[in-house]
Amino acid sequence: MKRNIFLLIAVALLTGATYEAMSQPSSNSTMKDQPVNQLRHIVLLKFKDSSTPAQVKEVENAFSVLPGKINTITGYEWGTNVSPENLAQGFTHCFMVSFKDQADRDKYLPHAAHKDFVKILTPHLDKVLVIDFVGKIK
Question: What burial letters (b/e) apply to 45-68, b meaning 16+ CB within 10 Å?
């Protein structure tokens, strides 16, 4: 009986500590470091079935060097689809490029480095989906 009471107390304490830790903002969160109202440029890529892993890697690398070549880029993230929902419609790669505002995005689009990237991408591209939005947090 005493053992059961001890276990119940331990579980209650751990549950409370876990809840408190989960409700506190993470000290290493990058959200607080990024201005909310930045323009986010989301690019989803679906590669051709004939594209080799080496060609896909070349596209990944070419996109990843753009922040070092285009000074209007304020943030860059990318990754591959890991969703279990099976709703990606063949899109495998997501890139998020952040800009201070629409004017900076408008400088990026015709930039020579961006055009060079598009030349590398195009032969391997089956479909692309691009959405731009200004970040908001409620």
Answer: bbbeeebeeebbeebeebbeebbe
> Which residues of the chain have a pLDDT value below 70?
1-35
CB 59 within 8 A of CB 121: yes
Return d(Cα 54, Cα 62) in angstroms, integer.
12
Q: Is the dihedral of CA 123, 124, 129, 130 positive or negative?
A: negative
Q: How far apart are CA 65 and CA 69, in angstroms?
A: 7
pLDDT of residue 15: 37
Handedness of CA 8, 13, 18, 23 (dihedral sign): positive
DSSP H/E element including 77: strand 73-80
Q: Contact 119/106 with Cβ under 8 angstroms? A: no
Q: How far apart are CA 54 and CA 38, in angstroms?
A: 33
| pLDDT tens by residue, 65-100 | 999 999 999 999 999 999 999 999 999 999 999 999
